[in-house]
Amino acid sequence: MPTSTTTDALARVGGLTLAAGAVFVAAGATAWTVVTQQLRAEKIEVPGNAPAFAGKPVQGPATAYVEALVIKGNAERGAGGRTFADISAALREVAPGSDEAAELRKQSMSLSTAASLRTALMTSVLAYGVSALVAGLGAFFVVTGSVLRRAGR
User: Fold this and answer.
1) Alpha carbon of 94 to those of 85, 89, 99: distances in Å?
2) 26-45, pLDDT tens digit by residue?
3) How far, in Å, CA of 2 to CA of 72, rounded?
4) For the segment 60-96, what is each residue's pLDDT rounded down to a tens digit?
5) Number of CB atoms found within 10 A of residue 91's CB
6) What is the Cα–Cα distance from 125 to 115, expressed in whole angstroms?
7) What residues have CB less than 8 Å from 101, skipping those under 6 apart?
């Protein structure tokens, strides 16, 4: 039979766990909401050549991920399938002031811009994942804390 000290400790730990869980749920939900608001404020729309969500606003993890994929594909097509390494190697082989060098620099800039946009979108996808993890852990803590408090009564 548990002692009064043990049951009191269980109730206290359960209460603290429940409170921590509530804070985690609130933090996760707040982070999710902030990321969503920031994406909506950018007024990005998934283009028609997307494999999914064409015409939909970017305002969640799925649409942000699809937009990043579209940007990658468009940038690769715009650079003729070349990578940064390919373009750098080609630049070393052409005359510095030539039209070909100018075109290669333009492709390099386009790839760089696309990489920045993709990074921002993938960061938002990651932020959604972390906020879901935090909220999920919070829900787990709430349930665990409730069980511990009941056990301590």
Assistant:
1) 15, 9, 9
2) 999 999 999 999 999 999 99
3) 61
4) 999 999 999 999 999 988 888 888 888 889 888 988 8
5) 15
6) 15
7) 91, 94, 95
Task: Give 45's strand partners.
Answer: 57
What would the two tokens of residue 125 be? 């996808």
Residues in the chain: 153
- Report how far residue 150's alpha carbon sits from residue 18's, in angstroms, rounded to the nearest whole number: 12
- Residues whose CB falls within 8 Å of the CB of residue 19, separated by 6 or more in sequence, listed in order: 145
Cβ distance 127 to 38 under 8 Å? no
In the three-class reduction of DSSP (H, G, I as helix; E, B as strand; rest coil), residue 94 is classed as coil
End-to-end CA distance of the chain: 13
Structure tokens at 64: 């942000």
Give the C-alpha separation, 40 to 100, whole Å: 39
